[in-house]
Amino acid sequence: MNGVARVADLTGNWKGIFNYPRLLPPTAFDAELRDLVGSICGVTSEPHVDGNGLILHATLEGFREGACVRFKKVYDDPDDEYRPVLYEGNVDSSGDEISGKWTVPGAWSGSFIMVRHSGQEEAEVRHVSEEVGP
């Protein structure tokens, strides 16, 4: 059994990027995952592809089995432009990175990567600012 299979769960805040197969730039996103004994649910937010300042929200539902993660992203306000997206990826041995492929069935696909966001960086920033003080 490898280290990934022993990962307790994927619950947490994640930051990611997905890449388009065409000339569109990569898109950053935030995700909050809940892993309930391998059943994955959560929410995401990402900027609208048009760069108009709008933020798109979606829900996630899927599962984790060992190192394999699969979930479906459904936008809160789906239309022809934002149909459900299927994600399939693998968790690294630390349990803090997922990478793989996303697919809009019958349309297009691309790669993605997401990294678990720990509060450690924020705590370090607060600690440094407290040391400097006014």
Task: Walk me through what this model shows.
This protein has 134 residues and is mainly β. It has one domain (4-132): Lipocalin (Beta Barrel), CATH 2.40.128. Helix content is 10%, strand content 52%. It has 1 helix and 8 strands, in the order ββββββββα. A hairpin with a 3-residue loop joins strand 7 (97-104) and strand 8 (108-117). It is globular. Mean pLDDT is 84; it is low at 1-5 and 121-134.
Assembly classification:
single chain
String of helices and strands: EEEEEEEEH
User: Number of helical runs?
Assistant: 1
CATH fold assignment: Lipocalin
Record the strand order, biggest sheet: 1-2-3-4-5-6-7-8
Computed CA radius of gyration, to the nearest angstrom? 16 Å
How many domains? The number is 1
Task: Please write out the topology.
Elements: E1 12-18, E2 27-36, E3 39-47, E4 55-65, E5 68-75, E6 85-91, E7 97-104, E8 108-117, H1 120-132
Antiparallel strand pairs: 1-2, 1-8, 2-3, 3-4, 4-5, 5-6, 6-7, 7-8
